[in-house]
Amino acid sequence: MSIADIKKNAEGRMAKTIEVFKADLQKIRTGRAHPGILDQVSVDYYGSMVPISQVANVSLLDARTLSVQPWEKGLGPKIERAIRESDLGLNPSSQGDLLRVPMPALTEERRRDLTKVVRSAGEDAKVAVRNQRRDANEQAKKLLKDKAITEDEERRSLDEVQKLTDRTIAEIDRMIAAKEGEIMAV
Question: Which architecture does CATH list for 32-102?
């Protein structure tokens, strides 16, 4: 493995972290209903936790209401409980086999809570990026220890990985600010 490989690997992993963070931000609701909002909610299905999308059909009834149609009869109450206990602040109602999940209008307090969720997800993404930086730096130090590179090359590698980390964290900060602005807009 060379310094270029280490940098390329770190860059790819940090880009993947950004993509995962974008997907997480899309799941945080801003007042409109979309089926992806329930992707993070898991339900107990014969002893294992699986996403709702794997045990039910999730679709839009209108702009503010989701419908959840379980594929098996006994899953309705379990899905309803899982949605209630999630941190999404949703209150599903059961109509026979169909669950209706209305999206409540966001209150000022709920908007603040959602910005905290966004910041928390952003911090998790930053931690992941820092862990990737640490891994890349350890690989460079291992190459130096194995005498595959010089100290100057190792120092250059550490600097390049740090610059990459700084750019990635700045991108995460921009995404957090944009999402907070979107949530706080009335």
Answer: 2-Layer Sandwich (3.30)
Q: Which contacts of 132-140 are long-range, i.e. CB under 8 A and separated by 24 or more positions?
A: 132/10, 132/13, 132/14, 132/17, 132/165, 133/10, 133/161, 133/162, 133/164, 133/165, 135/10, 136/6, 136/7, 136/9, 136/10, 136/161, 137/161, 139/1, 139/6, 140/3, 140/6
Level-2 CATH architecture, domain 3-26+107-184: Orthogonal Bundle (1.10)
For residues 163 and 71, give the distance between their C-alpha atoms in angstroms, rounded to a whole number. Answer: 49
Count Cβ atoms within 10 A of the Cβ of residue 159 and give its class: 0-12 exposed, 13-18 middle, 19 or more buried. Answer: exposed
Beta partners for residue 59, in sequence order: 67
Let me know: does 57 contact 68? Beta carbons within 8 Å: yes
Cα(109)–Cα(114) distance, integer angstroms: 9
Parts of the chain belonging to CATH 1.10.132.20: 3-26+107-184
Q: How many CB atoms lie within 10 A of CB 43?
A: 21
Note the pLDDT tens digit of each residue in 43-89. 888 888 888 888 888 888 887 788 889 888 888 888 888 888 887 77
Predicted confidence (pLDDT) per residue in 123-146, tens digit: 999 999 999 999 999 998 998 898
